[in-house]
Amino acid sequence: MKIIWREMNMEQKKKFEDWFKHSWTYVTGAILLSFMQIITLAITGHPWGITSAFAFWGSRLINALGGDSYFPVSSENIQTYQAWFLQDPVTLRNIGIIVGATLAALLASQFRVKKIKSKKQIIGVAAGGLLMGYGSSIASGCNIGAFYSGIASMSLSGWVFGVFLFVGAIIGGKLLIRFFM
Questions:
Q1: Does the CA dihedral 127-144-101-19 come out positive or negative?
Q2: Which H helix or E strand runs over 87?
Q3: pTM above 0.90, yes or no
């Protein structure tokens, strides 16, 4: 990366910094997310979602380890389950999100491996992750499917979800500060 940086002229370095080193505006992010939603809907025929692949991954892992897992039965789910792992569009999108987020953090010089401070932090992170997973399971989706895709589909449920997402973020932020900081 340093070799490439040395070979760039000042104008190229400025463009690189404008695109990757500095944060994008909220408007730019919203426009890009909207285009991604449109592209996702056009290609897959389904609104943007993330968590449905996790049931697929978990079920496949349990079966690979010799267990017997429950996988929701529908013609679409059975086809997804019987297909090769990377033929699931949601799985591909999730892999793209992970790789893209990592690449973005690396390009912006923001990638950090942080030291675990205490057992309390580990318990809090594990509990938060489990509660988020459970919540997305009983809600039939995560905030992307319920909020973002709901609003994009002109669904009242997306707006209701957004209000309670905001209220939950305020309460969660206060709990985070009180118990973990």
A1: negative
A2: none
A3: no
Helical ranges in 83-118 per DSSP H: 89-107
Question: Which stretches of 8-88 are DSSP H helices?
Answer: 10-16, 26-44, 52-64, 75-82
Name the token pair of 72: 């929701």
DSSP class per residue in 42-63: HHHSS---STHHHHHHHHHHHH
Q: How far is CA 168 from CA 61, 137, 160, 163, in A?
A: 32, 17, 12, 9
Q: How far apart are CA 24 and CA 10, in angstroms?
A: 21
pLDDT per position as a tens digit, 67-100: 877 666 566 666 666 666 777 778 888 888 889 8
What is the dihedral sign for C-alpha 66, 70, 71, 74?
Answer: positive
What is the crossing angle of helices 89-107 and 52-64, to 10°? 100
